[in-house]
Protein backbone atom coordinates (compact mmCIF):
# COMPACT_ATOMS: atom_id res chain seq x y z
CA UNK A 1 0.00 0.00 0.00
CA UNK A 2 1.64 3.24 -1.16
CA UNK A 3 0.46 5.29 1.84
CA UNK A 4 2.38 2.96 4.19
CA UNK A 5 5.50 2.59 2.07
CA UNK A 6 7.72 4.00 4.82
CA UNK A 7 9.14 1.16 6.91
CA UNK A 8 9.02 3.10 10.20
CA UNK A 9 5.40 4.04 9.57
CA UNK A 10 4.46 0.41 8.86
CA UNK A 11 6.02 -0.72 12.14
CA UNK A 12 4.31 2.13 14.01
CA UNK A 13 0.95 1.31 12.38
CA UNK A 14 1.39 -2.41 13.17
CA UNK A 15 2.07 -1.72 16.86
CA UNK A 16 -0.89 0.65 17.07
CA UNK A 17 -3.12 -1.98 15.41
CA UNK A 18 -2.13 -4.60 17.99
CA UNK A 19 -2.73 -2.17 20.86
CA UNK A 20 -6.08 -1.09 19.39
CA UNK A 21 -7.19 -4.70 18.85
CA UNK A 22 -6.22 -5.55 22.43
CA UNK A 23 -8.13 -2.53 23.76
CA UNK A 24 -11.25 -3.37 21.74
CA UNK A 25 -11.12 -7.05 22.72
CA UNK A 26 -10.64 -6.33 26.41
CA UNK A 27 -13.46 -3.78 26.42
CA UNK A 28 -15.78 -6.26 24.68
CA UNK A 29 -15.03 -8.75 27.44
CA UNK A 30 -15.95 -6.16 30.07
CA UNK A 31 -18.95 -4.56 28.32
CA UNK A 32 -20.37 -4.82 24.78
CA UNK A 33 -21.19 -1.06 24.63
CA UNK A 34 -17.72 -0.11 25.82
CA UNK A 35 -16.22 -2.39 23.21
CA UNK A 36 -18.26 -0.79 20.39
CA UNK A 37 -17.29 2.71 21.55
CA UNK A 38 -13.63 1.72 21.71
CA UNK A 39 -13.86 0.19 18.24
CA UNK A 40 -15.39 3.39 16.80
CA UNK A 41 -12.69 5.51 18.46
CA UNK A 42 -9.93 3.29 17.05
CA UNK A 43 -11.47 3.33 13.57
CA UNK A 44 -11.73 7.14 13.68
CA UNK A 45 -8.13 7.37 14.87
CA UNK A 46 -6.86 5.09 12.12
CA UNK A 47 -9.02 6.91 9.59
CA UNK A 48 -7.44 10.20 10.63
CA UNK A 49 -3.95 8.72 10.27
CA UNK A 50 -4.85 7.35 6.84
CA UNK A 51 -6.21 10.73 5.62
CA UNK A 52 -3.18 12.56 7.01
CA UNK A 53 -0.75 10.20 5.28
CA UNK A 54 -2.76 10.29 2.07
CA UNK A 55 -2.66 14.10 1.99
CA UNK A 56 1.01 14.15 2.97
CA UNK A 57 2.05 11.70 0.26
CA UNK A 58 -0.08 13.57 -2.28
CA UNK A 59 1.86 16.78 -1.60
CA UNK A 60 5.17 14.91 -1.71
CA UNK A 61 4.14 13.39 -5.05
CA UNK A 62 3.27 16.86 -6.38
CA UNK A 63 6.69 18.14 -5.31
CA UNK A 64 8.35 15.12 -6.91
CA UNK A 65 6.51 15.64 -10.18
CA UNK A 66 7.46 19.32 -10.31
CA UNK A 67 11.11 18.50 -9.56
CA UNK A 68 11.03 15.99 -12.42
CA UNK A 69 9.60 18.65 -14.77
CA UNK A 70 12.22 21.15 -13.62
CA UNK A 71 14.97 18.65 -14.36
CA UNK A 72 13.58 18.41 -17.90
CA UNK A 73 13.84 22.18 -18.39
CA UNK A 74 10.37 23.39 -17.41
CA UNK A 75 10.17 26.80 -15.72
CA UNK A 76 7.68 26.11 -12.94
CA UNK A 77 7.13 27.55 -9.47
CA UNK A 78 7.58 24.93 -6.75
CA UNK A 79 4.53 24.24 -4.57
CA UNK A 80 4.65 25.84 -1.16
CA UNK A 81 3.61 23.73 1.86
CA UNK A 82 1.91 25.60 4.68
CA UNK A 83 3.89 24.27 7.65
CA UNK A 84 5.93 21.43 9.09
CA UNK A 85 8.63 19.33 7.51
CA UNK A 86 7.14 19.67 4.03
CA UNK A 87 7.36 23.45 4.33
CA UNK A 88 11.10 23.15 5.05
CA UNK A 89 11.55 20.71 2.17
CA UNK A 90 9.55 22.94 -0.18
CA UNK A 91 11.59 25.99 0.84
CA UNK A 92 14.86 24.20 0.15
CA UNK A 93 13.59 22.96 -3.21
CA UNK A 94 12.51 26.51 -4.06
CA UNK A 95 16.01 27.78 -3.33
CA UNK A 96 17.51 24.98 -5.42
CA UNK A 97 15.10 25.80 -8.26
CA UNK A 98 16.02 29.48 -8.27
CA UNK A 99 19.71 28.57 -8.23
CA UNK A 100 19.32 26.15 -11.13
CA UNK A 101 17.30 28.67 -13.15
CA UNK A 102 19.97 31.33 -12.55
CA UNK A 103 22.68 28.91 -13.64
CA UNK A 104 20.66 28.03 -16.72
CA UNK A 105 20.30 31.71 -17.65
CA UNK A 106 24.00 32.25 -17.01
CA UNK A 107 24.90 29.31 -19.26
CA UNK A 108 22.62 30.64 -21.99
CA UNK A 109 24.33 34.03 -21.78
CA UNK A 110 27.76 32.40 -21.92
CA UNK A 111 26.64 30.36 -24.92
CA UNK A 112 25.40 33.50 -26.69
CA UNK A 113 28.61 35.31 -25.75
CA UNK A 114 30.72 32.45 -27.11
CA UNK A 115 28.75 32.47 -30.34
CA UNK A 116 29.20 36.23 -30.64
CA UNK A 117 32.93 35.90 -29.89
CA UNK A 118 33.42 33.26 -32.57
CA UNK A 119 31.57 35.44 -35.07
CA UNK A 120 33.78 38.43 -34.17
CA UNK A 121 36.95 36.36 -34.44
CA UNK A 122 35.91 34.92 -37.80
CA UNK A 123 35.15 38.42 -39.06
CA UNK A 124 38.53 39.74 -37.91
CA UNK A 125 40.42 36.86 -39.52
CA UNK A 126 38.46 36.79 -42.77
CA UNK A 127 39.90 40.02 -44.22
CA UNK A 128 43.62 39.25 -43.77
CA UNK A 129 43.11 35.62 -44.85
CA UNK A 130 41.32 36.77 -47.98
CA UNK A 131 44.18 39.17 -48.68
CA UNK A 132 46.72 36.38 -48.18
CA UNK A 133 44.82 34.18 -50.65
CA UNK A 134 44.85 36.93 -53.26
CA UNK A 135 48.56 37.60 -52.72
CA UNK A 136 49.24 33.88 -53.08
CA UNK A 137 47.40 33.85 -56.41
CA UNK A 138 49.42 36.81 -57.64
CA UNK A 139 52.74 35.32 -56.52
CA UNK A 140 51.99 32.09 -58.38
CA UNK A 141 51.98 33.99 -61.66
CA UNK A 142 55.27 33.06 -63.45
CA UNK A 143 55.19 36.27 -65.49
CA UNK A 144 55.09 38.53 -62.40
CA UNK A 145 57.98 41.03 -62.47
CA UNK A 146 60.48 41.07 -59.60
CA UNK A 147 59.53 44.52 -58.28
CA UNK A 148 55.87 43.55 -58.00
CA UNK A 149 56.84 40.24 -56.43
CA UNK A 150 58.87 42.02 -53.73
CA UNK A 151 55.98 44.42 -53.06
CA UNK A 152 53.55 41.53 -52.64
CA UNK A 153 56.02 39.71 -50.39
CA UNK A 154 56.19 42.75 -48.09
CA UNK A 155 52.40 42.93 -48.02
CA UNK A 156 52.29 39.21 -47.26
CA UNK A 157 54.61 39.65 -44.28
CA UNK A 158 52.52 42.61 -43.12
CA UNK A 159 49.33 40.52 -43.18
CA UNK A 160 51.04 37.65 -41.33
CA UNK A 161 52.22 40.08 -38.67
CA UNK A 162 48.69 41.47 -38.36
CA UNK A 163 47.26 37.97 -37.88
CA UNK A 164 49.92 37.22 -35.26
CA UNK A 165 49.00 40.43 -33.39
CA UNK A 166 45.32 39.55 -33.55
CA UNK A 167 45.92 36.05 -32.18
CA UNK A 168 48.01 37.49 -29.32
CA UNK A 169 45.22 39.94 -28.47
CA UNK A 170 42.56 37.23 -28.66
CA UNK A 171 44.55 35.02 -26.28
CA UNK A 172 44.77 37.91 -23.81
CA UNK A 173 41.03 38.54 -24.08
CA UNK A 174 40.35 34.83 -23.52
CA UNK A 175 42.47 34.86 -20.35
CA UNK A 176 40.79 38.01 -19.06
CA UNK A 177 37.25 36.88 -19.84
CA UNK A 178 37.98 33.47 -18.36
CA UNK A 179 39.35 35.24 -15.28
CA UNK A 180 42.44 33.06 -15.33
CA UNK A 181 44.87 35.98 -15.02
CA UNK A 182 46.81 35.83 -11.77
CA UNK A 183 47.51 39.46 -10.95
CA UNK A 184 50.72 40.14 -9.02
CA UNK A 185 50.15 43.47 -7.23
CA UNK A 186 53.13 45.42 -6.05
CA UNK A 187 53.74 49.00 -4.98
CA UNK A 188 55.22 51.04 -7.81
CA UNK A 189 55.76 54.79 -8.38
CA UNK A 190 52.95 55.92 -10.68
CA UNK A 191 55.27 58.17 -12.68
CA UNK A 192 57.52 55.19 -13.50
CA UNK A 193 54.53 53.12 -14.62
CA UNK A 194 53.39 55.94 -16.94
CA UNK A 195 56.90 56.48 -18.29
CA UNK A 196 57.23 52.77 -19.07
CA UNK A 197 53.81 52.79 -20.77
CA UNK A 198 54.86 55.76 -22.92
CA UNK A 199 58.19 54.26 -23.98
CA UNK A 200 56.95 52.22 -27.01
CA UNK A 201 55.15 55.29 -28.40
CA UNK A 202 57.91 57.88 -28.22
CA UNK A 203 59.03 57.40 -31.83
CA UNK A 204 55.48 57.40 -33.32
CA UNK A 205 54.75 60.53 -31.27
CA UNK A 206 57.92 62.18 -32.53
CA UNK A 207 57.00 61.34 -36.11
CA UNK A 208 53.58 62.97 -35.65
CA UNK A 209 55.06 65.85 -33.67
CA UNK A 210 52.90 65.04 -30.65
CA UNK A 211 54.18 66.39 -27.35
CA UNK A 212 53.48 64.75 -23.99
CA UNK A 213 53.30 66.11 -20.45
CA UNK A 214 53.18 64.26 -17.12
CA UNK A 215 51.45 66.25 -14.38
CA UNK A 216 51.35 65.01 -10.80
CA UNK A 217 53.17 64.38 -7.55
CA UNK A 218 56.20 62.21 -8.26
CA UNK A 219 55.93 60.57 -4.83
CA UNK A 220 52.54 58.99 -5.56
CA UNK A 221 52.68 55.21 -5.49
CA UNK A 222 50.15 52.63 -6.65
CA UNK A 223 49.44 49.05 -5.60
CA UNK A 224 48.84 47.25 -8.89
CA UNK A 225 50.08 44.62 -11.30
CA UNK A 226 52.48 46.84 -13.22
CA UNK A 227 52.68 44.64 -16.34
CA UNK A 228 48.94 44.44 -16.96
CA UNK A 229 48.19 48.01 -15.88
CA UNK A 230 50.98 49.29 -18.11
CA UNK A 231 49.36 47.49 -21.03
CA UNK A 232 45.98 49.03 -20.22
CA UNK A 233 47.46 52.52 -20.06
CA UNK A 234 49.44 51.84 -23.24
CA UNK A 235 46.26 50.91 -25.12
CA UNK A 236 44.66 54.21 -24.11
CA UNK A 237 47.76 56.17 -25.13
CA UNK A 238 47.82 54.34 -28.47
CA UNK A 239 44.18 55.27 -29.07
CA UNK A 240 44.90 58.93 -28.32
CA UNK A 241 47.87 58.99 -30.69
CA UNK A 242 45.88 57.37 -33.51
CA UNK A 243 43.18 60.04 -33.22
CA UNK A 244 45.49 63.01 -32.83
CA UNK A 245 46.71 65.19 -35.64
CA UNK A 246 50.24 66.43 -36.14
CA UNK A 247 51.23 68.99 -33.51
CA UNK A 248 48.77 67.72 -30.90
CA UNK A 249 49.40 67.55 -27.17
CA UNK A 250 48.99 64.58 -24.81
CA UNK A 251 48.57 65.08 -21.04
CA UNK A 252 48.87 62.37 -18.39
CA UNK A 253 47.73 63.88 -15.09
CA UNK A 254 47.52 61.95 -11.84
CA UNK A 255 46.55 62.62 -8.22
CA UNK A 256 45.75 60.72 -5.06
CA UNK A 257 43.39 61.17 -2.14
CA UNK A 258 42.14 59.10 0.78
CA UNK A 259 39.76 57.09 -1.43
CA UNK A 260 41.46 56.55 -4.75
CA UNK A 261 44.31 57.27 -7.14
CA UNK A 262 43.12 58.95 -10.33
CA UNK A 263 44.85 59.04 -13.69
CA UNK A 264 43.56 61.21 -16.53
CA UNK A 265 44.81 60.75 -20.08
CA UNK A 266 43.68 63.50 -22.44
CA UNK A 267 44.57 64.68 -25.91
CA UNK A 268 43.84 67.59 -28.20
CA UNK A 269 42.81 65.40 -31.11
CA UNK A 270 39.53 64.91 -32.93
CA UNK A 271 37.69 63.58 -29.87
CA UNK A 272 35.12 60.79 -29.87
CA UNK A 273 32.01 60.91 -32.03
CA UNK A 274 28.91 61.21 -29.83
CA UNK A 275 27.37 58.15 -31.50
CA UNK A 276 30.51 56.11 -30.75
CA UNK A 277 30.96 57.25 -27.15
CA UNK A 278 28.57 54.67 -25.57
CA UNK A 279 30.24 51.83 -27.49
CA UNK A 280 33.99 52.54 -27.44
CA UNK A 281 34.67 49.94 -24.75
CA UNK A 282 32.85 47.20 -26.64
CA UNK A 283 35.05 44.46 -28.06
CA UNK A 284 35.83 44.81 -31.80
CA UNK A 285 33.83 48.03 -32.00
CA UNK A 286 35.20 50.43 -34.60
CA UNK A 287 33.88 53.96 -34.75
CA UNK A 288 33.46 56.24 -37.73
CA UNK A 289 37.00 57.59 -37.43
CA UNK A 290 38.76 54.34 -36.54
CA UNK A 291 42.37 53.83 -37.54
CA UNK A 292 42.85 51.55 -40.57
CA UNK A 293 45.13 49.14 -38.65
CA UNK A 294 42.99 49.06 -35.51
CA UNK A 295 41.29 45.85 -34.36
CA UNK A 296 38.87 47.71 -32.10
CA UNK A 297 39.87 45.79 -28.95
CA UNK A 298 42.43 48.01 -27.23
CA UNK A 299 40.00 50.02 -25.10
CA UNK A 300 37.92 46.92 -24.32
CA UNK A 301 41.08 45.17 -23.15
CA UNK A 302 42.08 48.20 -21.06
CA UNK A 303 38.72 48.33 -19.28
CA UNK A 304 38.80 44.59 -18.46
CA UNK A 305 42.28 44.92 -16.98
CA UNK A 306 41.34 47.94 -14.88
CA UNK A 307 37.99 46.61 -13.62
CA UNK A 308 39.44 43.21 -12.70
CA UNK A 309 41.89 45.03 -10.45
CA UNK A 310 39.13 46.91 -8.63
CA UNK A 311 39.28 50.16 -10.62
CA UNK A 312 37.14 51.73 -13.31
CA UNK A 313 37.70 53.40 -16.66
CA UNK A 314 35.51 56.07 -18.25
CA UNK A 315 35.74 58.28 -21.32
CA UNK A 316 34.31 61.62 -22.42
CA UNK A 317 34.96 64.54 -24.74
CA UNK A 318 36.56 67.69 -23.38
CA UNK A 319 34.78 71.00 -23.87
CA UNK A 320 38.01 72.42 -25.26
CA UNK A 321 38.30 69.55 -27.77
CA UNK A 322 39.84 66.10 -27.69
CA UNK A 323 39.13 62.97 -25.68
CA UNK A 324 39.66 62.36 -21.98
CA UNK A 325 40.03 58.95 -20.33
CA UNK A 326 39.83 58.67 -16.55
CA UNK A 327 41.12 55.71 -14.54
CA UNK A 328 40.44 55.36 -10.84
CA UNK A 329 42.23 52.82 -8.70
CA UNK A 330 40.55 52.60 -5.32
CA UNK A 331 42.86 52.47 -2.34
CA UNK A 332 41.72 49.00 -1.20
CA UNK A 333 42.13 47.44 -4.64
CA UNK A 334 43.72 43.99 -4.87
CA UNK A 335 43.98 43.66 -1.10
TrEMBL record:
Domain named Histidine kinase: residues: 120-333
CDD domains named among the record's database cross-references: HATPase (cd00075), HisKA (cd00082)
Localization annotation: Membrane
Pfam families: HATPase_c, HisKA
SUPFAM superfamilies for this protein: ATPase domain of HSP90 chaperone/DNA topoisomerase II/histidine kinase (SSF55874), Homodimeric domain of signal transducing histidine kinase (SSF47384)
Main location per the UniProt record: membrane
Cellular component GO terms, alphabetical: plasma membrane
Reaction equation(s) it catalyzes: ATP + protein L-histidine = ADP + protein N-phospho-L-histidine
Enzyme class: transferase
Molecular-function GO terms, alphabetical: phosphoprotein phosphatase activity; phosphorelay sensor kinase activity
Keywords, sorted A to Z: Kinase, Membrane, Phosphoprotein, Transferase, Transmembrane, Transmembrane helix, Two-component regulatory system
Enzyme Commission numbers on file: 2.7.13.3
Transmembrane segment boundaries: 12-30, 36-53
One example of a Gene Ontology biological process annotation: cellular response to phosphate starvation
PANTHER family: PHOSPHATE REGULON SENSOR PROTEIN PHOR
The name this protein goes by in its record: histidine kinase
